[in-house]
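Task: fold both queries, return tokens.
Query 1:
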Amino acid sequence: MDELQSRTIALRSLKHDKGLKVHFAEFPNLIIWSTLNKGPFITFEPWSGLSTFLEEGDHLEDKKNVCLLEANQVEELGFEIEVL
């Protein structure tokens, strides 16, 4: 997901009043996935870049939303997980 309207996502159980909320204000993208065999989990991953699109080349600098750093440059990104 790369055109997000929010930088927060929540997941609540249908069986009880438990859940998680992930706040990822510093990340432009969110990846949501699970296993093909209906595994007992779902994963939220804030990303600062995206995988290769069909119309992109294989060069890192051409990737959508990628954050390129100069030599010795450091950037720290963070997110919060809130237990509901």
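Query 1 returned. Query 2:
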Amino acid sequence: MIALEFSNVGVNYGPVQALEQASFRLEAGVLCGLIGVNGSGKSTLFKAAMGVEPLSCGSITVLGQSPERARQSGLVSYMPQSERVDWTFPVSVREVVAMGRYRGLGITRRLRAQDRAEVDVALERVGLAQLGKRQIGELSGGQKKRVFMARALAQKAQLFLLDEPFAGVDTASEALLIEVLKELRDDGATVLLATHGVEGLGAYADRAILLKNRVLLHDSPQLVLRPENLALAFGMDSAVHERGERS
């Protein structure tokens, strides 16, 4: 089954072409890295896949549906690069993760036993089971990323779109998040994650997409990450990026 397909997709911001004739397809059960510099269209691609960015041309299919319908059905989970959060707001880790269950709860948003169980499982998977009552503003940067990953897990989506999930996190959190993403892939979900740093990508990703406002290359990480290919996207010595440059 095709989880995500872009066909000649274009997105414009006025005179600026953020995406140009972008085409690729991802099978279900694949973990794919999306590689490109700032301004290469990664965030725009994610927004288009969520159905919240109008297209100037082309089409997108998500799990056999339109992006809008897939999003409204809860089939797609998106973790943006930076959450717009008031860290002083008195909300607990558990309450944030529970937001992943809201879609099926109606107006009352009263958690059922199944919902509470899914929240427990999600917190356990990201190593935060003991911090459920902690105020989210008290957490480290890596722990906060884990919380939002847990919220995505609680949603039980089939397609996960992650914009720079490793930016600003500690080594332990990055390793844990990678293991969680591999487990999702092994369970049949599809994962597309954007990253600047490519160090180690070949160890866990099945596919990689090289983006520079259009898809330059979509293949195995081993092929995409060759220095001559990275130079096309980064326009500089690819060795810098092989050391895992962070944004």
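Both queries returned. Flag for query 2: Residues 171-186 form the longest helix (16 residues).
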